[in-house]
Amino acid sequence: MTIIRSIAFNTLFYLNLIIRMIIFTPYYFVSPRKQAWSVPKNWAKSNLWLQKVIVGADVHIDGLENIPDGPYICAPKHQSFWDTYAFLPHIADPVYILKRELTWIPLFGWYIQKMKMVPIDRGKRSAAMKVAVRGAREAVAGGRQLMIYPEGTRTAPGAPPHYKYGVAHIYGELGVPVVPIAHNAGLYWPRRKFMRYPGVIRCRILPPIQPGLDNDAFLKKLEEVTEAACDELLIEAAKSDNPPPMPPTAVKRLKELGVSV
């Protein structure tokens, strides 16, 4: 049954994307940018609804009161494609730093450009950082929220963290709060797999890390608070009435935490 539900969800997920892009394209491109955000935000909400109804995976978010007004850096844990859109409804005017190749995709790339994202050439690391910082400064000056995934790539639940220094560099340059977000979505929407599992995806929006720390101290604190919360959510999922399948990285981490599965 889980396989059938996963196939059904994945099929409807992509149909939902294609159909909405076609139907709402005229409205999206003639609307002011902030007003046009209603299209991708409603798309995100509809995906969460589809996952709940078809797969049986609900979402519970704690700490929404920790989201500040105005510009800040949003730093979610990156475990799944799920976390690239799930927080959109709660962020006023986000800007993503993304690989420039995404802007070349017909229609999808035009949607990205409409929102004035920051495309970078990942093959040119030093130049990419300069472009990222310049784009981030412009976004913050406009009151926007910068989305950064501190590890840069999707990491399996329980895997050893690899936080990159880029987020610390941008933190030091911008002087705005950083909001860490921990979650366990990778247990229910595993990376590089089509399976989707039922249960409750739990997210925790942590108190902002205020500007003023030196870059190394900031990066250490970001990793410590995020990983501690992720460990707690991993344990909670493992002890739930209907735990999802645990990948080897999660099993190993749970053993390190003294939890048997």
UniProtKB/TrEMBL annotation:
Its EC number is 2.3.1.51. The chain crosses the membrane at residues 12-30. It holds the Pfam family Acyltransferase. Pathway: Lipid metabolism. The lineage of its organism: Bacteria, Pseudomonadati, Pseudomonadota, Alphaproteobacteria, Hyphomicrobiales. SMART domains: PlsC. CDD domains: LPLAT_AGPAT-like. This is 1-acyl-sn-glycerol-3-phosphate acyltransferase. It comes from Phyllobacterium trifolii. Keywords: Acyltransferase, Membrane, Transferase, Transmembrane, Transmembrane helix. It comes from the Bacteria. GO terms for biological process: phosphatidic acid biosynthetic process. Residues 72-186 form the Phospholipid/glycerol acyltransferase domain. GO terms for molecular function: 1-acylglycerol-3-phosphate O-acyltransferase activity.
